[in-house]
Amino acid sequence: MVKEQVIRFLAEFKRIASAKGIVLIRRDKTIQGLVDLGLTKMIALNELTSLTLQEYVSGPESDKDPNCTGDIWVFGKVINGIPAYIKLKIEVKGGCEFAKCLSFHPAEYVMHFPFSF
Asked: Which residues are 1's β-sheet partners?
């Protein structure tokens, strides 16, 4: 069941991203992470829209912020030889959907990919 959920999440995230773009949450850790990974914002957004089922790590998990809607999903991807930790969600506010990237930085721990080949 989780496999189908991941596929649906990625399809929906990419649909929203192609229509409205991706909201990249500006946290110091993410900004420095993009620098450490050698990415511009545009390249980072391209990496997000090319995520696959094989790069899934975990989720869905409830957002700990009671003011936010949507589940959190974690993915990992090797970028420029560095494993990257990526945290995404789809948030709905006022009837509008937003594709959000909450974290994007070098991984701080070993990630496990349950659907990798």
From this structure: none
